[in-house]
Amino acid sequence: MVFWRSRKKDKSTPSASEGRLNEAEQTLLGADWQVKGRIYGKGQVIFQSAFEGEMDIQGRVTVDSSADVKGNFCSEDIHIRGKVEGCLTCSRMVTLEETARFEGEMTTPQLQMEAGARLNGKITMDKTRQR
User: Fold this and answer.
1) Which of 58, 122, 125, 127 has the most CB within a 10 Å radius?
2) What is the pLDDT of residue 128?
3) d(CA 118, CA 89)
4) Regarding beta strands 118-125 and 34-47, do their DSSP bridges make them parallel or antiparallel, or are they unpaired?
5) CA 99-104-109 angle, 5° bins
């Protein structure tokens, strides 16, 4: 049974260390999953499911509009379209799209928030790396 999908890196495409992430570096947690635990790694993680736990990703985390995630999250970039509850620590930028719902504590040097997004909690705008 496949828990999530991760594809091997194609050497002809740019790597995450070059500032761009490609499809070969993506891990997708599909909509029909409910996951609890710890996730650590590099690349891009896309949540379309329920997740509860701890996450430390060197790369980008995307929370799709169908996702509901709770816990402590640490990443370079965090892009939220769905519901997030917990503590976020981000070393680059957090983006809240129109459908985003965030409740908790956030530490990030940059925050981009679209009209319609909801944020309830504490924000610390800190340029120092929190990892």
Assistant:
1) 58
2) 54
3) 18
4) unpaired
5) 85
